[in-house]
Design a protein that fits this description.
alpha+beta
């Protein structure tokens, strides 16, 4: 009976490996377009329809332009404004010097799109920018930041992967401990 618990070791290891693979895919989501924050307009092409994310990328530990960038997305062929969904809990991916944060997500069909920075950020971002401006009086260096269009990966995938890593470690630990104790 106690050797049946040893089966938890390969099960936990496989759950752990699968979860880590998905987290790496989440961090390395395919970038489709990048535009510096110093330029106000950009044109990009989406080959397939789907859900995409607009990310702000740049150097960490300096003042960022969140709240000072209003982003508009327009389908160039139809002239329709694409509605952007603001992220309630913003996903971020950080390295040692640079990081990125998902500002908006949107659903779009294939086609050519124009992205523009009009300076009218959302109300929540403006409040955050007001607080940051009260603390840090330095101006934003827009040349160190860029706007990226990436494939959108749901946050639920990240949550399930974290739970998978925890359960994988627990299963492996129980697979080692139970046969010794029993």
């Amino acid at each position: 009976m106690k050797y049946l618990f040893c089966i938890l070791i390969p099960i936990g290891l496989s759950v752990l490996v699968i979860s880590i693979k998905h987290i790496v895919r989440f961090a390395n989501a395919k970038m489709l377009y990048e535009m510096s924050c110093t330029s106000r307009d950009g044109i990009f092409t989406l080959i397939t329809q789907g859900k995409y994310g607009i990310w702000l990328s740049g150097k960490q530990f300096i003042k960022s332009p969140i709240g000072e960038l209003g982003i508009k997305l327009i389908n160039q062929q139809t002239g329709k404004n694409i509605p952007l969904s603001a992220k309630l809990l913003r996903t971020s991916v950080n390295g040692f010097e640079t990081g990125r944060i998902e500002l908006y997500s949107f659903w779009a069909e294939e086609g050519i799109y124009v992205i523009s920075l009009d300076g009218e950020g959302s109300t929540g971002d403006k409040v955050g920018a007001f607080v940051i401006n009260a603390i840090n009086k330095h101006p934003v260096n827009y040349s160190q930041f860029s706007i990226q269009i990436r494939e959108h990966i749901p946050v639920m995938v990240l949550v399930l992967c974290i739970l998978g890593i925890i359960l994988g470690f627990m299963a492996m630990a129980l697979g080692i401990i139970f046969p010794i104790v029993l």
